[in-house]
Write a structure and sequence with these properties.
The complex is a heterotrimer.
Chain A: E1 16-21, H1 27-33, H2 37-45, E2 47-51, E3 64-68, H3 74-86, E4 89-93, H4 95-99, H5 111-119, E5 143-145, H6 152-163, H7 175-181, H8 206-209, H9 226-235, H10 240-261
Parallel strand pairs in A: 1-2, 1-3, 3-4, 4-5
Chain B: E1 19-28, E2 33-39, E3 53-58, E4 62-67, E5 78-83, H1 87-93, E6 100-107, H2 113-116, E7 120-126, H3 130-142, E8 150-156, H4 165-173, E9 177-183, E10 195-196, E11 213-218, H5 223-233, E12 241-244, E13 260-261, E14 264-265, H6 266-269, E15 272-274, H7 275-278
Parallel strand pairs in B: 7-8, 7-11, 8-9, 9-10, 11-12
Antiparallel strand pairs in B: 1-2, 1-6, 2-5, 3-4, 3-6, 12-15, 13-14
Chain C: E1 2-5, H1 6-19, E2 23-29, E3 34-38, H2 57-60, E4 64-73, E5 76-81, E6 88-93, H3 95-111, H4 115-122, E7 125-129, E8 154-158, E9 162-167, H5 170-175, E10 182-183, H6 186-199, H7 214-221, H8 225-232, H9 240-243, E11 251-257, E12 263-270, H10 291-310, H11 320-324, H12 332-344
Parallel strand pairs in C: 2-6, 6-7, 7-8
Antiparallel strand pairs in C: 1-9, 1-10, 2-3, 4-5, 4-12, 8-9, 11-12
Helix pairs in contact in C: 7-10, 7-12, 8-10
Classes of the chains: A alpha/beta, B alpha/beta, C alpha+beta.
Chain lengths: 266, 286, 345
């Protein structure tokens, strides 16, 4: 996720920060606003120059850009390129920005059909690309904060790291680790299925803790044993179609990228 | 009731209590490597064995293990040579003279001075591997009467990667130690009039007595097998080879498990190993 | 051996809850599974459980705990090692979990010293209970941990209307000071021995050979990569087997910063050798890159490596890893039996 050359802010000034939204639900920025009291602490250490959801002013002079949402149009690409030119550090905020997230659900489907289903008669006016992409398919991204929505604590931790000249780190262990910390009953033991074993952790297994199961919103761990996991789900009675549906919700882009990296179709 | 206990320690009571060190000097060696000179309270010496490591804690940044690059024969501040390769080390590179850091240690087994005393020493360093070896090279240079002939071989990928440039010149001019160096390649932008080729190319031309020589080796993981093979071809017995291995210690004390190498803990049993101890350990990769 | 009426044991626990400054925790059913948790009253305690989700290790080595805090004032940093001394009174610990804590004591107190562990451990009281139910995956009898004769302050055995109480330590003895007990009769002592003897027949799972043979077996199996790869093919590398293990003690240390940049802490967190990045060094080299290597390491460590260092086999046979592994590849009993069979084939 982070590499040796990744930049950081460390010269002691209050870094200027901007938030941008692309194709997405803006739920991640909402999580930032929902920090409430802690948001006040945050603006003590950073200067927010652009945040459409929370303020009317806008500035183009910033060091850290938090980008929410995925890439859908040529206009998105141009806008992202400008952001990259302005920012020292670009952080993908949320799963759509980080790995196309739920937007990529459509990547497997016939685009005309998708457009018609969503926009009906107005579908002709839609200028989107047929494939939803994460922002790192267009520009270089320094850090990612995955999640649908993002975990507020993880966001605060990332900002804290950046303003202190350190690099944010996102776990590469799966949801199961924190789920066991919490002593949740395994979703499988409750007769459900769960994507926790190959989904990136860092969320304190919040969904399982709340009594449901993991949908995989933080994306897959770096090296998931997808084949073995498919076997597990089959053993628990899911059909191939059902398993694909589970994987498609958030992982379409990641699975396609992995398949390309492996040199074949998935 | 025994539960009425203190939560805080006086200095030194907990094994995890660092002592405060102050960076007194920083010297950039390469684009990615800097030497940090660290002073301990009241100017005390670290009192380490050559080859041991410390855990360096930087407030707000984190903690990481580093082999000590200076010799215990040098009193006062000690030295760490740190390459910026990740989260913690990048941030360490942003530190300045005067900054305060935490030091735990020294930890681990260094080079067995008793075992190598009186022997001819052949130091073989690759890249950043010179840093741990420098502690024992300088130890030997400071106490030449305790050892036989001294030879150092140093290989880097390119000239600009060389650490301790000033010191290398001194070694090259030294009457006490035979110093030889090589680089894998010379980019057009860099100057070099020495040998080129991998570190192992320096071994065959060497003349040393395998009966009285011990080799002390440190470098990137990929280096060990080739160096050991070349040494064996020169007739050096396995029990005359010592290696310093790198792992990612979190605790430094044999607990956290990150540095485990089969049944060995690098932080307790190493980082310097007698080669026969790790020869058959798959995870040593030597 | 003492004998205490059931109602007096309840009263003792109520008394501890009311007056001991320490948190009294015990086994309870949380609706879907058994867990060690804070007791509001003795009624919540369930002593006839089979297996808890996590072991009571969490009270002496919590999932996350602070090792060090730092604080900057006027350009001076204060760095301070922390060791939370909070002890617990833990009620209802099965013998295999007592054996696991005794094993950790050997490492964290007797051998390598770890102040955060030692303080919590020395401030804790362990009240064991003889097993009354055996989990499907448990093979403690094979590992010699279905019963123990040390590692507890008190050990209770359910005799119906009464409990037999074996006193393990002076601290355990003191707990009974204000409680009505009497010395056990010959029949009662005999009854406890019978219960313990019968218990050994209650296990479905059995290691087919003495655990003392594990180090030799594993050493001989190290290079059998076909075996390890075959197993690892189905392993998700999720680390669950590590996290639920009562004897796993590996950890990572994370930096947790306060927003102002002037203060923060170093926090240790349970980590596990099955997780991909566990053996990775700063420059990216991973010394156990393959799942099969990590999978093998876990079994080697349990049955051989730890023995080399501490003289213990580090598996107590509780069966938690087996129960929690969704891919069904974590069972040490099965793996060790199969290795043994392969060796003797």
């Amino acid at each position: 996720m982070s590499d040796a050359s990744a930049p950081s802010v460390s010269d002691g000034r209050r870094p200027r920060v901007a938030f941008f939204d692309f194709t997405g639900c803006e739920g991640d920025q909402l999580q930032v606003i929902n920090l409430e009291d802690r948001l006040l602490d945050l603006v003590e250490v950073v200067e927010v120059v652009s945040f459409r959801e929370a303020m009317t002013e806008h500035g183009d002079d910033y060091e850290i850009a938090f980008v929410e949402g995925g890439v859908a149009t040529a206009h998105d690409e141009r806008r992202l390129t400008r952001i990259r030119e302005n920012a020292d550090i670009v952080v993908a905020l949320g799963s759509c920005a980080a790995f196309a997230g739920i937007n990529a659900l459509r990547n497997d489907q016939e685009f005309e059909t998708v457009k018609e289903r969503v926009y009906g008669e107005d579908s002709d006016s839609i200028t989107s690309y047929p494939i939803a992409r994460p922002i790192d398919d267009v520009i270089e991204v320094d850090y990612e904060i995955p999640g649908c929505p993002i975990d507020r604590e993880e966001f605060v931790g990332a900002v804290t790291a950046l303003v202190n000249g350190a690099e944010p780190s996102i776990p590469n262990y799966p949801v199961c680790v924190e789920c066991k910390f919490e002593e949740n009953t395994c979703a499988f033991e409750r007769g459900e299925t769960c994507l926790g074993p190959i989904t990136r952790g860092g969320c304190s297994a919040t969904c399982v803790s709340a009594g449901t199961h993991c949908w995989g919103c933080r994306g897959m761990v770096d090296d998931p044993n997808e084949g073995a996991y498919t076997d597990v789900l089959e053993d628990h009675g899911l059909t191939t179609e059902e398993i694909i549906e589970e994987y498609q919700l958030y992982w379409n882009w990641q699975r396609d990228s992995r398949a390309v990296a492996d040199g074949g179709n998935r | 009731m025994r539960s009425a206990a203190r939560t805080h320690f006086e200095h030194g009571e907990s094994e995890y209590q660092p002592i405060e060190g102050q960076i007194v000097w920083i010297d950039r060696h390469t684009d990615d490597d800097k030497l940090f000179v660290i002073d301990l309270p009241d100017g005390v010496s670290l009192d380490h064995d050559p080859g041991q490591f410390v855990q360096l804690f930087v407030p707000g940044v984190g903690e990481a293990p580093f082999s000590i690059a200076s010799s215990p024969t040098k009193e006062g501040p000690f030295e760490l040579c740190i390459r910026a390769v990740g989260n913690v080390t990048n941030a360490i590179h942003d530190l300045e003279a005067g900054d305060v850091v935490g030091i735990r240690g020294p930890y681990g087994q260094g080079f067995d001075i008793d075992a190598i005393a009186g022997q001819d020493l052949l130091f073989i360093a690759g890249g950043i591997g010179l840093a741990p070896l420098r502690s024992v090279i300088n130890y030997a240079l400071d106490r030449p009467a305790e050892f036989g002939d001294l030879t150092t071989l140093y290989g880097c990928t390119e000239p600009a990667e060389q650490l301790f440039p000033g010191e290398l010149d001194e070694w090259a001019d030294s009457d006490v130690m035979d110093y030889r160096e090589t680089v894998d390649e010379v980019p057009d932008s860099q100057e070099w009039d020495g040998d080129t080729g991998v570190i192992t190319s320096l071994i065959p031309p060497l003349e040393f007595d395998p009966e009285t020589t011990v080799a002390l080796v440190c470098g990137p993981p990929v280096m060990y097998r080739f160096v050991i093979k070349a040494l064996r071809e020169k007739g050096l017995a396995d029990d005359r080879i010592y290696l310093s291995l790198e792992r990612n210690m979190h605790c430094g004390r044999g607990l956290c498990g990150h540095c485990q190498l089969n049944e060995l803990y690098v932080c307790l049993d190493g980082p310097v190993f007698h080669y026969p101890t790790v020869r058959d350990k798959e995870e040593a990769e030597v | 051996m003492k004998v205490i009426d059931r109602s007096d044991l309840d009263a003792l626990i109520e008394e501890l809850i009311a007056s001991d400054p320490r948190d009294v925790v015990g086994v309870q059913e949380d609706g879907e599974q058994y867990v060690f948790d804070h007791l509001e009253s003795a009624d919540e305690l369930t002593l006839d459980y089979d297996l808890t989700a996590l072991s009571p290790k969490k009270y002496v080595m919590p999932q996350r705990e602070t090792l060090l805090t730092y604080d900057r004032t006027d350009d001076e940093y204060e760095m301070r090692a922390e060791a939370d001394p909070t002890g617990h009174i833990v009620v209802g610990v099965h013998p295999y979990d007592l054996a696991a804590i005794e094993h950790l004591d050997k490492i964290f107190i007797d051998t390598l010293q770890d102040e955060p562990y030692r303080r919590k451990r020395e401030n804790s009281v362990l009240i064991g209970v003889t097993m009354q139910d055996v989990a499907d995956n448990c093979f403690a009898a094979s590992m010699g941990t279905a019963t123990v004769d040390s590692g507890y302050d008190l050990m209770v055995t359910d005799l119906g209307d009464t409990f037999a109480v074996d006193i393990g330590t002076f601290e355990g003895d003191r707990l009974l000071e204000s409680t009505k007990t009497r010395n056990a009769t010959a029949e009662e002592i005999e009854r406890v021995a019978e219960i313990e003897a019968d218990l050994k027949d209650g296990f479905d799972r059995e290691l087919a050979f003495p655990p003392a043979e594990l180090p030799t077996l594993l050493e001989a199996s190290y290079d059998d990569m076909d075996f390890w790869e075959d197993y690892a093919e189905q392993c998700l590398s999720c680390g669950t087997c590590n996290v639920v293990c009562p004897t796993c003690f590996c950890f990572s240390v994370d930096m947790v910063r306060d927003l102002d940049g002037d203060s923060g802490r170093q926090e240790r967190r349970w980590d596990g050798c099955l997780l991909e990045d566990f053996a990775t060094v700063a420059q990216g080299e991973n010394f156990r890159e393959e799942v099969a290597q990590r999978h093998r390491h876990r079994f080697m460590r349990k049955g051989w490596y730890i023995y080399e260092r501490y003289g213990d086999v580090a598996c107590v046979g509780c069966g938690r890893c087996t129960r929690h592994c969704v891919a069904d590849v974590a069972d040490p009993c099965e793996v060790y039996n199969e290795l043994r069979e392969a060796q003797h084939a």
